[in-house]
Amino acid sequence: MSESTSRSRRRLASILDRYQTPPGHFDEILSEDRLLRAPWAEFAAHVALRPAGLTYAQARVARQMHENGVTYNVYAAADGPQRHWTLDVLPFILSGIEWDTLSRGLNQRARLMNALAADLYGDQAVLRHGLLPPALVLGHTGFLRMCHGVRPPGGVFLHLIAFDLARGPDGYWRVVATRTQGPSGAGYALENRAAVSRLFPEAFRALGVQAVAPFFGTVRQSLLSSAPSDGETPHVVLLTPGPYNETYFEHAFLAKHLGFPLVQGADLTVRHNRLFLKTVSGLRRVHAVMRRLDDAFCDPLELKADSTLGVPGLLQAWRTGNVLIANAFGMGVLESPALNPYLDGVCHALLGEPLAVASIKTQWCGETVGPAAPVTTGVVKAAFPEDSMEPVFLSRLSASSLAEWNARLSQNRAFVVQEFVPLSHAPIWHSGHLESRALMLRVFLVADGTGGYQIMPGGLSRIAGAEQEIVSGQRGGGSKDTWALATPVAAANPPPEHGVAVLQSVRDEQPTTSRAAEHLFWLGRYAERSENCARLARAALSRLGEASTLSNRMALYVGACRRHGMLGASQPAKLGEHGWLIESLFDRNCQSLGFNIDQTVRVAGAVRHQLSSDNWKVLNRLSELFPRLEEGAESAAEPPVDLDEALELIDRAIVWLVAVGGLEMAHMTRDDGWRFLTLGRHLERLWFVAATLEDVSAQAATGDPAALEWVLELSDSLITYRARHARAPEWQQVLDLLLLDSRNPRSGAFQLSKLAKHVRLLPDADLVALTAEIDRLVGVCGQEDTEQGELFEHTGRIVDLLEACLRLVPKVADILALRYFSHVYDEPHTTVMT
Question: How many degrees, rounded to 5, is the angle at CA 681 between CA 804 and CA 580?
């Protein structure tokens, strides 16, 4: 034993004592004589692996995943909780020699899968020569006959492919599954790397861990260079099923990282066999689609007729060569586990090479002639995706159940029987000690534009939950950052960052889809509405308990809350009680503060690829301030928090909401999306200031300074007023500051001037009547002092101006919806060439 290994072993002694791998499983950290394997010995030499330090580091990782909003939802729902992504603090380490051997074998397998796809949708030599049973391919639901004869640009059917690997008790890796339609997990692997590498920077550098970021550069350039651009700048989009998909976080993450617009099926349309994106500026040609949508849902005209997620005519646009689809349609057939027994022969035929990385041993029942031989061990799975099922372990069945399964296997030839491979185990840090968990590795490869593939160094390691032998995202568990170490030769001669030709960089503003514009517009409205509710709730709660508060003043406060929809069904026993208003903060059955914050975060999630990571962290924290009450809690005798706690929560909400607005101003590009968000904010602010002034105007004649001070506080203008005037608030001065002063960012005049500016700058704006109406109101607010004096003398004219502002807000919203948002919801259709 070397001195370094001995020192590392002593350092780990305190945490390895309780660590045990079940018999019959390969141990990723310890050899059979419980010595540290070489990569782990080197890791331990650079990291102080002590319980307190690992517990602290695990908490940091969990907090970072939470703050970044990294989620994986098993069954996502509109009002259901999101499941946060689980990352173990300890990486999974592969030596340089082992990784090089594995990467060469998987590169070969990726080339094989692409060559097999080209053959199955071309000459079908493997079927004619008996290398694959025709029934296995032609009977598979993933084989699309309408795709036969199509050859995508460069002959690349698979731009991105992934393999699920398992290490058996003998220490060898086997391919368990192939992912060829829209393989997920690459984005999670990058997020894992960002979190773990910062915890162990010294070990990361000393071990020579290969970077994963260049892989995504190759993905981007591979799609851009392969797209049929017809001389135009290629425009690539990422197609997602939507926010309720379990891996939507990754879709948004990749779209942002790659710089591709994130779109849904309704955002696209086919015209004359070309694909277009519906933007606020009109239709824009799409040259390539990186899809995260399975074949069946992509085109309701030719595939699943009731799919609302796809684009009518997309398949025909792809067949005619007008758009690149990555991956190509019809690749689901390559995911069939029934292919495994035949791949070695297919590899010899198509590549002239033996298969380098073995598949898990598999028997396809469909090739059996006559009664099938009884099977006593292994795992039963369905051969076709549409008939997928939970794995059945034959060796664990009773005699009667085993006989029943053998009868089913004889009658239904769609099943395959695969050997059961006891998964290798790796350590995780859980509850203050090391635990052994089953592990699988998903490795990703991208076409490099030269006929080969570039592999992501490491990939995504997934771990099973406690007492589980199956690794599955649907069953819980977690993940690890995967460290693929570089060999000395590879470290001295790193590959180029991108294996494909890098296109000349041009400035091309990312288009704003109609859907994104609508979500951003409502993000602005809901964020502003949340802040208004918070200020109104704070002002009301802080005054309702005052003994000196007059009944008419309390009626004003409560009436304002009711006008903004903030009050639930419960009514106060006495007007001055505050418990009912505190309960209303959490009530999702009205437009409460909790409701509006929920809506803010919801619409932000739909466009999170357009928000900065800092912005999302703030929104994530904001969403936790007002949790939903448990069933029946709304009618409880006591409010969920006391008055002091409620005011503290409101203060924190206001701080986070102001931070959201500040980050929007500081980080967002001044494009069409930002303009719609800004319009939403100004419309909501105009409505709020006009409504509160109208509420207080009835009491203006009484000259109640407390009521006027209240409306100044609501508009965050109290300090400004005090700086200008040395006396108690008076109606005329308050009205001047909050309605007519264009320098006050909270005034009605300021909002109107911004609306006039931004409406004119909208794409293809031809809203003459609307801009004329806004200009008229701007003119009224900007009259000379003498004319304003006349305005103050006539209360009716003030009321008319406030009512005109209140009418303007829904009118602008409706016009914008009809002009820029409504066509997203048109009936899906395609226009054909005549």
Answer: 85
Task: Identify the residue whose tokens are 């797209």.
Answer: 227
Kindly provide the residue ranges of all beta strands, DSSP E only, lying in 9-118, ordered along the sequence: 92-94
For 471-501, write each residue's pLDDT tens digit.
766 566 789 999 999 986 555 555 544 444 4
307-325 pLDDT per residue, tens = 889 999 999 999 999 999 9
Q: Which two tokens stand for residue 421?
A: 């491979």
Class of residue 701 by CB neighbours under 10 A (exposed 0-12, middle 13-18, buried 19+):
exposed
CA-only gyration radius of the chain, Å: 32
Query: What is the distance of C-alpha 182 from the center of its chain?
Result: 15
Q: Mean of the pLDDT values across residues 29-43?
A: 89
* Amino acid at position 509, single letter: E
Give the integer Cα–Cα distance in Å for 461 and 470: 13
The continuous run of DSSP H or E covering 410 comes out as helix 399-411
Q: Distance between CA 362 and CA 347 in Å, rounded?
A: 17
Cα–Cα distance list, 438 to 435, 461, 525, 667, 831 (Å)? 10, 10, 47, 42, 52
**Mean pLDDT along residues 346-365:** 93
Question: Can you spell out the DSSP letters for 377-392?
Answer: SSEEEESSGGG----E
CA-nearest of 315, 321, 328, 335 to 265 is 315
Q: Where are the domains of the chain?
A: 514-664, 669-689+710-834
Torsion angle in degrees (nearest 10) through CA of 597, 598, 601, 603: -110
Query: What are the backbone angles phi and psi of residue 244, rounded to the nearest 5°?
Result: -95, 5
